[in-house]
Write a structure and sequence with these properties.
Layout (H helix, E strand, L loop, with lengths): L13 E2 L5 H11 L1 H10 L15 E3 L3 H10 L94 H41 L7 H23 L6 E3 L7 H4 L6 H6 L1 E2 L18 E2 L8 H5 L5 H18 L18 H16 L18 H6 L2 H10 L12 H4 L7 H14 E2 L3 E10 L8 E2 L7 E10 L5 E6 L3 H6 L7 H17 L5 E4 L6 H9 L3 E5 L9 H5 L8 E6 L3 E7 L3 E6 L6 E7 L5 E7 H9 L2 H11 L9 H27 L7 H13 L12 H8 L7 E3 L6 E2 L14 E2 L1 E3 L12 H8 L10
Parallel strand pairs: 2-3, 7-11, 11-12
Antiparallel strand pairs: 1-3, 4-13, 5-6, 7-9, 8-9, 9-10, 12-15, 13-14, 14-15, 16-17, 18-21, 19-20
Helix pairs in contact: 1-2, 10-22, 14-21, 20-21
């Protein structure tokens, strides 16, 4: 028998009976629509019966072209001849199928207008449809009209095989109409799905906007009821139906629109939106026994406290390295008038006096170092010239060096790191800071910026910071005193590689490193750490709880692990508060005063307290402000106070060498910390603390000590006065070499023609001044202001 031909544009329809519902549904779930239809078509035995779709039919689509190719491959010569069924354009659309509202799957069920009314008939093993038993046969539906297009006269048995070419023009018109109907139906379905997605999102938004102060019992009841409803829906979705499953073959699939899952849905379920009490958290006891100053007792002077940090051992190392560096630099020949011809090795007292002069330069700022040694009346400051000659001070300043070079047997590239030139001073000062003081319970971590505009690979730029460009140093400070407890300079990749926990963000690793350094010397736990939003995160809070440290700080809304409502953006009214808690360990709070503030804490709850707030015309009102925000505001400025103390009177000079900037910053840290310890000792003994400026003045005087410039700059005027007016006899003499001198009384070189020379001089006076015999000689030895007549 001649093989049947089926147009590839005509969709093939399969309607599976109810006894194969479960099997086909599992195939759809596991394989997808396309693979499930292909498996059914490749089976040796097609469905037991082909029946019309009833109520509750579930539809899945495949591509028409692929289905036509699959169907044509199953038609053989033994297939019975069928007569094409003409489709009436007016009767293509069928009535919608009633669907249960409770079933989430059947909401997308629909009646496709492409389905025709084909009645039951015998099927062969390899055919899609069999011959009709009667000359006319309708679809078998109770609601079907006897005049429907299914009542078609059957062809005679002796007629030729079915060919699609018969009635080609009529079939093409019908296909065009059916395709138009299908496209309109698909557009309607798409709009319905979009409306359902929008409604589900609005429902979730309404749930998130519930009252934060609701009763826990009501919330638990609502949550349990919602979970029950979700379970019922899941049961309806997973329960196999006894009704028929209909595979509707279509070309385009829209599964992406049907699956619209919100991000972080699982995290949102873990967070609980409710008011959180501070007692709900497990607070670690503060077990540090001996906090505060840990150094030796009996210290009284400012210099003694300063040398707790800059000890003689450290200064001696700097002196030796400076002298070694000078020998290496000055080993070759020098010019005749070079400043280095007068170089001599630096001593320890000179290095202390050099540091004292630097402190006084910070108190008296000038644009150029040379101005401190000026002879001009407006710029003259005798302190600097009395301690150092200008050339000597510049020699020490230019030859200053801190760290020795690497050993000769070690390769230079393997030994020298980016922080090599200052590493010994950094490690020494950091160790002394942690050794001499243990902070209280409240500590703070922040970054300090050492101003530097030169070229270095690890220079940082922060436009929101007061010092925008420079070297970054991470600092841990005591919130009560502002004492700098630990420091970690940032040198780029070497610093990142040395930090713990490579799997965490860099800011979190810095915090963990500083906390480890603190715990090594504190011998206890229970600290309460305050950080800003650059460091605060949920993962960091969990890690700090493992080492028994609480965390409180502002947090960015896009941090990983925060509630989904926070990430999506909170919309709050003024003075409105919302809080979330997780596992009774971490609390996230949002509060809007002038602007929205997000806080994360493992120590505080969402409790509020009355705070006086000034309003117009001096009136004051009380506002409810969260306790966590008040505590954070009062405790988080410890590092900022330390920066203020270091920058107020700092010796700041332009330099192309970054390590000089770091050294001067470490010097300021040592002075600030020694002032803190000095005042703590004062208060403990019942005395009043001193101001920072007074502390620095006393310290620089003690550092300079007895160091003075030894060069001879002439006899003081007081000695000259005693010799002239002593009343003893003075004798005049004549210069035998006939060389002349200016007369000390009447000669004036500032006036034109005012110079008066003489060969006579006073032999008794030590200066041997030139004097004319007579009035000049007498006036010089009897009148105190012997040159006053020249100004008349």
């Amino acid at each position: 028998m001649e093989a049947a031909h089926i147009s590839p544009e005509l969709p093939i329809r399969w309607v599976v009976s109810a006894d194969r519902t479960v099997e086909i549904k599992e195939e759809v779930t596991e394989l997808g629509c396309d693979q499930a239809n292909e498996r059914i078509l490749q089976e040796e035995t097609p469905p037991s019966s082909i029946a019309e779709r009833g109520t509750g039919v579930k539809s899945v689509r495949l591509g028409r072209r692929r289905a036509s190719e699959m169907a044509s491959s199953h038609i053989t010569e033994e297939s019975p001849e069928l007569e094409p069924v003409p489709i009436n354009k007016e009767a293509t659309a069928l009535e919608p199928v009633p669907i249960k509202e409770d079933s989430p799957v059947l909401e997308l069920a629909h009646i496709n207008p492409l389905q025709s009314c084909v009645g039951p008939g015998p099927t062969s093993q390899k055919s899609l449809s069999g011959p009709l038993s009667d000359s006319t046969q309708h679809c078998g539906k109770p609601s079907c009209d006897p005049a429907c297009d299914a009542f078609k006269p059957k062809k005679a048995k002796g007629s030729s095989s079915l060919s699609v070419s018969d009635g080609k023009e009529g079939v093409n018109n019908q296909l065009d109409h059916l395709q138009a109907e299908q496209s309109r139906t698909e557009q309607t379905e798409t709009e319905l799905r979009r409306e359902e997605t929008a409604q589900s999102r609005q429902k979730k938004a309404r749930q998130l906007e519930g009252l934060p102060q609701a009763m826990d019992k009501a919330e638990s009841t609502d949550e349990s009821s919602l979970e029950d409803d979700d379970d019922d829906d899941d049961d309806d979705f997973n329960q196999p139906s006894s009704e028929a499953v209909h595979f509707l073959l279509a070309e385009d699939s829209e599964e992406s629109e049907e699956s619209d899952h919100e991000p972080d849905a699982q995290l949102e379920g873990e967070w609980k939106r409710a008011s959180v009490s501070a007692d709900a958290f497990t607070k670690f006891p503060f077990t540090v026994i001996n906090k505060g100053y840990q150094g030796r007792t009996g210290l009284k002077t400012e210099l003694e406290f300063f040398q707790l940090f800059f000890t003689d051992a450290l200064l001696t190392e700097i002196v030796n390295e400076t002298n070694r560096h000078a020998r290496a630099k000055l080993g070759g020949p020098l010019r005749l008038n070079s400043i280095w011809n007068s170089w001599k090795p630096v001593t320890l007292p000179e290095m202390k006096a050099f540091v004292g002069v630097l402190l006084n330069m910070g108190l008296n700022v000038k644009t150029d170092i040379k101005e401190y040694f000026s002879e001009e009346w407006a710029d003259r400051m005798p302190f600097f010239k009395d301690v150092f000659k200008r050339s000597r001070f510049l020699q020490i300043f230019w030859m200053l060096h801190l760290c020795p070079p690497p050993p000769s047997q070690v390769p230079q590239a393997a030994f020298v790191s980016r922080g090599q030139k200052v590493r010994n001073v950094v490690s020494y000062i950091d160790a002394k800071c942690r050794e001499l003081f243990i902070p209280g319970r409240d500590i703070c971590i922040d970054e300090s910026t050492v101003g530097f505009n030169g070229r270095v690979v690890f220079k940082c730029y922060s436009p929101q910071m007061p010092t925008k460009s420079g070297l970054r140093v991470f600092v841990l400070a005591d919130c009560e005193t502002g004492y700098v407890c630990a420091i970690v300079p940032y040198f780029g990749s070497p610093t990142r590689d040395s930090l713990p926990r490579p799997d965490m963000p860099f800011a979190s690793r810095v915090v963990l490193r500083l906390c480890e350094m603190l715990l090594q010397t504190a011998n206890g736990h229970g600290f309460h750490l305050f950080t800003d939003r650059f460091y605060t995160s949920y993962d960091l809070a969990v890690e700090l709880l493992k080492i028994k440290i609480h965390l409180t700080g502002t947090v960015k809304a896009n941090r990983r692990g925060l509630p989904a409502a926070v990430k999506q953006g909170l919309t709050l009214e003024k003075n409105e508060l919302v809080s979330f808690s997780k596992d009774s360990k971490v609390m996230v709070l949002g509060w809007k005063g002038k602007r929205l503030v997000l806080m994360l804490s493992t120590f505080h709850g969402s409790d509020c307290e009355k705070v006086p707030h000034p309003i117009k015309r001096g009136a004051i009102e009380e506002l409810d402000k969260p306790s966590v925000i008040r505590d954070y505001t009062s405790k988080t400025g410890a590092v900022d106070r330390a920066d203020h103390c270091c920058a107020s009177y700092a010796f700041t000079r332009k330099s192309l060498q970054w390590w000089r900037k770091m050294f001067f910053w470490l010097l300021e840290v040592a002075i600030a910390n020694s002032a803190v310890l000095f005042n703590l000792t004062k208060v403990a003994s019942g005395q009043l603390p001193v101001r920072r400026k007074a502390f620095r003045k006393a310290l620089l005087v003690q550092l300079v000590g007895g160091v003075r410039d030894s060069r001879r700059r002439g006899r003081p005027s007081s000695t000259d006065r005693e010799e002239r007016l002593s009343g003893k006899p003075h004798f005049i003499a004549k210069n035998e070499s006939k060389s002349t001198k200016d007369c000390a009384v009447c000669s004036d070189r500032k006036r034109k023609g005012g110079r008066r020379e003489t060969v006579w001089f006073c032999k008794t006076c030590s200066r041997h001044p030139g004097l004319h015999p007579g009035d000049c000689f007498e006036r010089y030895h009897t009148v105190e202001a012997y040159r006053s007549f020249l100004s008349v």
